[in-house]
Amino acid sequence: MDGEISPDEVKELLEDDADVRVIDIRDEQSFNHSRIPDSENIPFHELTSRVEELEGEDRIVTVCPHGKASVQAAQLIGSYEGTADATVESMEGGLEKYGLKFGLIGSEDEADESANAESPF
């Protein structure tokens, strides 16, 4: 693991269309509910069996709710031979900090359901 990266830096990388993979390690349901735009979901419990999907990447950022479990995920990814040359970082403060500052996106399905829901007013 190469340390932590701030939510500001992550947002900047994504806005600059940098060659970075943002890996959200929460479960699929949580990921579908809210996430960082352009992030992808590899739940923590699947990480060891799916780490080869990250082979050959230049930069990987792991994210979780509060920035604690993503440190462990970054360490695991960084220890994999196929990612030895990658910069692997954990986003400090997690999705909570990123979401408070920049907001998160939700699933398109939920947006459709909300649009079709009857208004309480």
TrEMBL record:
Transmembrane parts of this sequence: none
CDD domains tied to this protein: RHOD (cd00158)
Matches recorded under PROSITE patterns: RHODANESE_3
Coiled coil, from the record: none
Rhodanese domain ranges (all copies): 16-107
InterPro entries from the UniProt entry: GlpE_sulfurtransferase (IPR050229), Rhodanese-like_dom (IPR001763), Rhodanese-like_dom_sf (IPR036873)
Pfam families the record matches: Rhodanese
Protein's name in the database: Rhodanese-like domain-containing protein
Source organism: Haloterrigena salifodinae
